[in-house]
Amino acid sequence: MPSSPTTQRRCRRFFGAAILMLGLIHSGGPALSAEAEYLPICNLPKCLNPQVTTKSGIGTANATAEARISPDDAAKWCAAYKPRDKYCAKEQVQSGWIGFRPLYRASADCLAGRLNGIDGGNYSYVGVWGDGPGKGRPRFRAKGDAKDLQWEGSGATVDHTGTFLSWGGGSANLATQWDVLCAGAPAPAAH
């Protein structure tokens, strides 16, 4: 029995979507530009993170960076996670993904070891992780209300001083924000 043009179109769409999904599964999700820098919201493969758009004072006592969800990253993310939503990319750029803001700001005093993260929290540099997946990366203590934050729903744990006890949760995000802001600066004294 010959198939109708409508059935043929449906088959082409189905197989096209299947090929796209297989390509994304094989590649591990939407790719982020290798040359771009990000101020990450989260570090899971499904995350859509804001890309750095402006930086100043990098490595100094007045380091600042701003980031936004890029249209290209949003288009790749939407192709993987919301392929039928034709407004997805525009909405993600405007809303800033789960952060619900189009612009993210972070700043640091790289010399004194203070970080103001994109989450609005204030953190103190306390050295580097000695072992595990974060070995050698910057480690932080949360100040004030930031001690109560639960990063990415993963339940990052902090001790009574606010020092992060495990690499999971927001530790990787804070380390990456520090790396963007304090690139080339000598490590500050641990607090």
UniProtKB/TrEMBL annotation:
State the superkingdom.
Answer: Bacteria
Q: Does the keyword Signal apply?
A: yes
Q: Where does the record locate the signal sequence feature?
A: 1-33
What keywords would UniProt list here? Signal
Q: Indicate yes or no for the key word Signal.
A: yes
Query: Any idea what this protein is called?
Result: C-type lectin domain-containing protein
> Which organism was this protein described from?
Nitrospira lenta
